[in-house]
Amino acid sequence: MPCINSDGTLTEAAVTLMNVMVEHHSLEEVASITDIPLYLVRATARDLIETKLVTEQSGAYYITKMGSDKLKLTLAKVH
């Protein structure tokens, strides 16, 4: 499940997850907060980690500086 659209912006799912990950939650917590099925949260999180937009430490997920910049850029393009 790719987290980046062809125009370089984040997908809607990636934006949703990253907005919750700002508070450093586990994937189970992210799924509960967003009402997105855990398997989709895991798939999107894997892609976000591979693209270095998110990192994981001790079961909590954090947005990287690059991820924060990409999120801001995406939100600016949407609004």
Structural summary, described in words:
57% of the residues lie in helices and 10% in strands. It contains 4 helices and 2 strands. The chain has a two-stranded antiparallel ribbon.
SSE topology:
Elements: H1 12-21, H2 27-34, H3 38-50, E1 54-57, E2 60-63, H4 65-78
Antiparallel strand pairs: 1-2
Helix pairs in contact: 1-2, 2-3
Q: Considering the protein shown, what is the CATH homologous superfamily?
A: Winged helix-like DNA-binding domain superfamily/Winged helix DNA-binding domain
Low-confidence stretches: none
User: CATH fold name, please?
Assistant: Arc Repressor Mutant, subunit A
Residue fraction in strands: 5-15%
**Number of distinct beta strands:** 2
Largest sheet, order of strands side by side?
A: 1-2
Structural class: mainly alpha
Averaging pLDDT over every residue, what do you get? Answer: 92
Outline:
globular
Element order, helices and strands?
HHHEEH
**Please, what is the oligomeric state?**
single chain
Cα(first) to Cα(last) distance is 24 Å
User: What is the rounded Rg?
Assistant: 11 Å
How many structurally independent domains? 1
Please give the CATH class. Mainly Alpha
